């Protein structure tokens, strides 16, 4: 079978000498340039080992002559991106909040920037689309604890609520039950009264007059005459259809007896002014802004 | 029978003959005739279009590019005479590619690999490079002699070589240069290129394409077709027995006899073949094969052997087309004394034509009726619906308007869906409160945040369909998108 001149008689071609069940493999030689190219690619690969990071060592890897690193190149690209955005972000920092909303280009920029920043910083509490959760306000609706104008939103973002910042919003829901101000049956009565303010059904045998009396004595100071709320104190409007913690009797009893004092952190100093502006514009543009 | 191979016997290549073959250079001879003329014509047409198309102007108005064919990558636009395509309309290219592929199948089922022989860029440029080589170094025999000569080179020979490579490089450079002109305003870019102010990427691309053209057309040539291109392999699956491939009609050609002997035998009334074994078909072949061995992988169906053979047949007074576009069916029919039949129209070609017509028709219809105003709507996913303090429901949508015209337009938005719905576009204080109007710049898109608010009691359904009509106030052009209004 190792005959040098093993010729297939049908095709007239030489064979490789390999034979399977009487079928011989014809020798169709590859061009030599193909082989050369193959060797060149191997040499090229060796070149790669030398100039680029390649071999893993115990704690690191061979760095390569060029000193290339993907991490460094990402850093460079990010810096380039920042530089490219610099001009636009400067325009954002300079414009007033009202002007940003009037300029379609600035509004688009602020909304895009705001959406990203919101996702990074606000979404853990308020949700990725600002839909909120129990105790965390929905930012899409038109009900605002501390006011829904651009400036008011900006102020809340900057200084927070009960955040400990010198300029923070103050005021909290007192724990009327825990502190012994109201007795349990009084709390049940006033909870039903609060439900009646927004037209929700009340418990059978509930004394409306007593409820109004307790409300006037204890709640009006913050929630206002008729429970319309007070944005100075962050006291919610109790007559509307939106509830931060929930409108059912059990939740209301819990709120009145235990109090509520959710915290919105202050973002001043944590994010730069242009970013804060973008965030305020974004929240305002979600739909509920006044 | 399985013959066991003793590993000890597998030590040397020498036992089995060489596994790698040295490149045998091909020296195609000059030829003239019908198919050569067709090839010259097609070459002039293809290269003419390729080299000069970027310089053709097309007026699209002030501020828009005036180049007839332009791929504007930074702005994501493709301009083709009266058509301007946006990235989302890339399906027109998909359609074009389908038509191109099926057209290739059709060509193949009619005339075999005629794409390879006449239109493939590899063939066209190789042909051009061969023409230059022949012009400078002479025809087949001279070139073979010059290459084989071991004498020290004289000035004349050196200048020939230098001239040839210079012209090759010039063609290759122009090929790369024309390529980049499709991506930027050609006259401006030419000016920048010669004053060395063009962007580096332009020079890099010219360099890359100069190198590939020079190497592929000057050196690799038929090796590309034989070893690198997948088409010869795919072709086997697309051809059938009716396809007219370049065929040596062995029924007529065999038995090969010299001219003199044939004359003697014919005088005696004997049957002799027309082939005089002159090897002209081999001499002119750009892939260096002998077509008389039958259909071969290397054959690109260029028909130059037909021209060569016809020339000889005319000289010796025998009928032409001993080699022709033909198939084995007809050879057998002639051998059986029956007339040949050519079935260009058969189910395969009809189906290919129908597919081309259908896809082409759909594309043409889509292109002619394509809207130059478009709207896409995306419903907010989180929150999907918002309850407001008065109990009404609000849904927010991201609306993207596309103005594909070359001028600014005023667009009115009408929302048709929930009962008593109020519409507001964030950042737009419209004079018509329930019909927001906005201006979109020419050739631009605008992304808007649109709020639809409706009383809950009038819209008790969990989901109500909403239609967004956007109307060009000036032209009356309308585009529509649909979505849903959802209750919490």
TrEMBL record, chain A:
Keywords assigned: Cell inner membrane, Cell membrane, Electron transport, Heme, Hydrogen ion transport, Ion transport, Iron, Membrane, Metal-binding, Oxidoreductase, Repeat, Respiratory chain, Transmembrane, Transmembrane helix, Transport
Domain of life (superkingdom): Bacteria
Cofactor note: Binds 2 heme C groups per subunit.
Keyword Electron transport carried by entry: yes
InterPro entries listed in its UniProt record: CcoP_N, CcoP_N_sf, Cyt_c-like_dom, Cyt_c-like_dom_sf, Cyt_C_IC, Cyt_c_oxidase_cbb3_su3, Cytochrome_c_Oxidase_Subunit
Compartments, as annotated in UniProt: Cell inner membrane
Pathway listed: Energy metabolism; oxidative phosphorylation
Translocase as UniProt keyword: no
Bilayer-spanning residue ranges: 33-55
Main location: membrane
Known cofactor(s): heme c
Chain ranges of the Cytochrome c domain: 109-198, 206-287
Subunit structure: Component of the cbb3-type cytochrome c oxidase at least composed of FixN, FixO, FixQ and FixP.
Family, per entry: Belongs to the CcoP / FixP family.
Role noted for this protein: C-type cytochrome. Part of the cbb3-type cytochrome c oxidase complex. FixP subunit is required for transferring electrons from donor cytochrome c via its heme groups to FixO subunit. From there, electrons are shuttled to the catalytic binuclear center of FixN subunit where oxygen reduction takes place. The complex also functions as a proton pump.
Protein's UniProt name: Cbb3-type cytochrome c oxidase subunit
Automatic annotation (TrEMBL), chain B:
Annotated gene: fixG_1
Keyword line: 4Fe-4S, Electron transport, Iron, Iron-sulfur, Membrane, Metal-binding, Transmembrane, Transmembrane helix, Transport
Transmembrane segments: 40-58, 90-107, 161-182, 202-220, 350-368
Domain 4Fe-4S ferredoxin-type, first and last residues per copy: 265-294
Highest taxon in the source lineage: Bacteria
Protein name: Cytochrome c oxidase accessory protein CcoG
InterPro entries in UniProt: 4Fe4S_Fe-S-bd, 4Fe4S_Fe_S_CS, Cyt_c_oxidase_cbb3_FixG, Electron_Trans/Redox, FixG_C, Helical_ferredxn, Ig-like_fold
